[in-house]
Amino acid sequence: MGKVRKNVVAIFDVGKTNKKLFLFDENYHIVFERSARFLETVDEDGDPCENLESLRLSVFDSLHEVFRKDEFEIKAINFTSYGASFVYLDEHGRPLTPLYNYLKTYPEEIQRELYAAYGGVDQFSLETASPALGSLNSGLQILKLKTEKPDLFSKIKTALHLPQYLSFLVSGKMYTDKTSIGCHTALWDYPKNNYHRWVSDAGIEKIFAPIVNGDEVFPSTHPGSTYEVGIGLHDSSSALIPYLLNFHEPFILISTGTWCISLNPFNNTALTKDQLEHDTLFYLTYSGTPVKASRLFAGQEHETQIKRIAEHYDISTAKLRNLSMNWDLMDAIKAKFNFENTALDTFSKRDVAAFASFEEAYHVLIMDLVVAQLASTKLVLGETKITRIFVDGGFSKNTIYMNLIAYYFKDIEVFAASMAQATAIGAALVIHQHWNPKPIPHDLIELKYYRA
């Protein structure tokens, strides 16, 4: 008798830095993991960009490796990756250009003309829920290509966002997913729930694949294979899925990392000009419903400022990260310093030499960051009564940060949420019904309650 093979789902989680492949069993435990990093290459202007060919080969190498493992039976495959990145394919499904970096500088003139033709930057940004972010608005990348390289543009058969390109490599099918269109692309008209009219006016709509919901799957192109292939998801939207499936009372998720993103799936009121100016936008869930989100570059700011403190006091940054909440010190600090400024760079303007100790300096830094975070999160609160706030990612392990969030959101239950690989699990859960006969486990997310 042959060995019983374990049913698994394979998830490719493609970040800017790390490219990972996970195999999850039916209880969503990681049973295999592979990680790769590639050297960036450059585009025709000499700007750094993802090495698309390395990524393509890595997908096939990784799959060949796991298919050779006789202890696993792969039932389904799905993909999640960063957004704001298009792959332009010719009629044979081959990429025509490098995978341009979303940080590439954007020509002012093209942007200005587009906004002028559609009611000005404010109106356009409100309709598309896309703050003017240049190349980070991936729709504008297509407009630039069409304007500057019309011959090349005419050869494009289909433009796919990166997660859908990865899916196409395995399924041979081309689709557009709502989570990718919905993330500050400047393509989607939120009030009309369709592509914005500039997309058809510019003749761009014809290069988009049909839109399907993110929980759909398609058979693989490989002869004799029985596994299903998901269409891929934008990573920020994928990380929200475990929470949407586990909690039905209104909540906000503060997903913390380099960016701290407050996501409210229960607030779809129209964006205001003020919200837009404070980096608030909409994402779309895998089923196409809007999620109001505000972004704060707080993780990056934390890294920069703890280096300043550590250098001044000649200690390691680890010593600062491991400090516990000292309420007596916090009370003294509140009496001594002003915390009315909600700007993210407040601490950078403080004199590190003015603090009595590194502990005091670090408590002030976290207080400054939390004050900025409160302002950011309040932008997405809305009218619906939120009963819980979940904080996941780096800051969820910071007891000073968590205690202060709980203190200031007194009327809402605050939890530090931990979950290994939430983004990858989201991409697995969204296609759960297609591969997993078991019910979704209730203990996927570990919660730690913080009392105000």
From TrEMBL:
GO biological process terms, semicolon-separated: xylulose metabolic process
Keywords assigned by UniProt? Kinase, Transferase
One of the Pfam families matching this protein, by short name: FGGY_N
* Gene Ontology terms, MF aspect: D-xylulokinase activity
Q: Return the InterPro entries for the record.
A: ATPase_NBD, FGGY_C_2, FGGY_N
- Ranges of residues in domain Carbohydrate kinase FGGY N-terminal: 9-231
Family, according to the entry, reads as follows: Belongs to the FGGY kinase family.
Protein name stated in the entry: Carbohydrate kinase
Source species: Sphingobacterium hungaricum
